[in-house]
Specification:
Length: 120
């Protein structure tokens, strides 16, 4: 396999069609590949504001979902717990369901954290 020469062409930015090469300017130095497509550094900077808006909206939706689960557990009884690895929140109706999966062992091993518990 042949190596790319200094200043050789890498590809084109999928957004602005700028030809990317092995140089040290902003567009080329910070270019990234996402899903097989090149994105230049300048376009990544332009996407920064939109990315933060999406991130904060997602965090707010996730917090609202957690509040709804806790409210449900408070009204009807149940356990709301958080899977530490993937940061997902789950609800079970009673202790027996919780013991089936993930169980007390998962809490002890710190794989799961109980956020709210109301056993009626």
């Amino acid at each position: 396999m042949r190596a790319i020469k200094a200043g050789g062409t890498l590809g084109k930015c999928v957004f602005c069609s700028h030809t990317l090469s092995e140089t040290k300017d902003l567009r080329n130095k910070h270019a990234k590949i996402k899903a097989g497509k090149w994105i230049c550094g300048a376009c990544l900077l332009d996407l920064k504001e939109a990315s933060f808006e999406v991130f904060f909206a997602y965090e707010e939706e996730e917090a609202e979902y957690r509040r709804k689960l806790v409210k449900k557990a408070h009204k009807k009884g149940g356990i709301v717990f958080l899977y530490i690895d993937d940061n997902s929140v789950q609800y079970v109706k009673n202790q027996r369901e919780f013991n089936d999966w993930p169980g007390k062992r998962a809490v002890k091993d710190k794989l799961v954290r109980i956020l709210f518990q109301n056993l009626k």
